Amino acid sequence: xFEKLRSAAEAGDVSARSFMGALYNPxxxxxxxxxxxxxxxxxxxxxxxxxxxxxxxxxxRGMTELLLNPARGQHDLERGCRYGLAxx
Length: 88
Prior knowledge:
- This protein is mostly helical.
- The protein has helices spanning 2-10, 14-24, 41-53, 57-67, 77-87.
- Helices cover 62% and strands 0% of the residues.
- The longest helix is centred in the middle third of the chain and has 13 residues, at 41-53.
């Protein structure tokens, strides 16, 4: 199932990209008991970006969480606030 999801995400399916972002998101990775990937904020942001820009609320939330959390190494206050406002 993971390989199908990853293939769909790489082919541009925005729903699949959003879910892949959630799998890589360190804030959410523990929710998935058998998560097949290691949490990685940079990869999560890469997967989240297109769906977030297209208005997917889950991806916007993920972008907000990662960009506003300095501990995740991707801190960007301006972008984080922009995605947070879009999410709200």
